[in-house]
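Look over this record as teaching material.
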Amino acid sequence: MDKLKNSGFYKLKFFITPEEFESILKLFEHKQTQFHLTNYAQTEHDQSQVYEAYQTFYQYFTAEEKRTDYHPFFVYSISVTSNDESSGFFMRNEGVHFPYGGQWAEDELPCILLSFPKGVQVNLEDDKGKYYIYEDIREHKWLIYTFFNEITSSIKKITKPLRFSALDAAAMKEQKPSVRISHDALHDLSKSWISRKYGLVISGK
């Protein structure tokens, strides 16, 4: 039996303004939701603290000058309960690599990865002993799967695929990462220190 069937994650990578992020957070208000940092203590944050953490992360990349007293970090595990179902999402910052001067640039463009497991572990036992398989999460956690789709659909409505290149066309071909960006976030990022430093031309197609 294929244990890897239904393994992996549903994913969406995005970069939106703090105000837009706050509107996405409001979708969680109708669910029993807990946001935990992934530290040893599993510190719980309320929505205002999650918003403030995202705002700090966003402002680091969209500022005119690069901060030296802050390392971009935004990581949460999100437990969600809907009726009798419970499961979790994961939200963390990632970087978009790009070439510069014949090698990878020392900085990266920002995005947030929102993910949700495709499978739920089911423990079984046969004459050879105990084992487990992953069954389709949609068959066990349909309400939470639907909620994840509601969140990602809301993000997709306000974003377009991120595209960027360098001012010098010979320096970098147009990059097409699997990241979505909102109109306002694109505007802010285009004026930021990272765009000036590398001569980036950012667009949403």
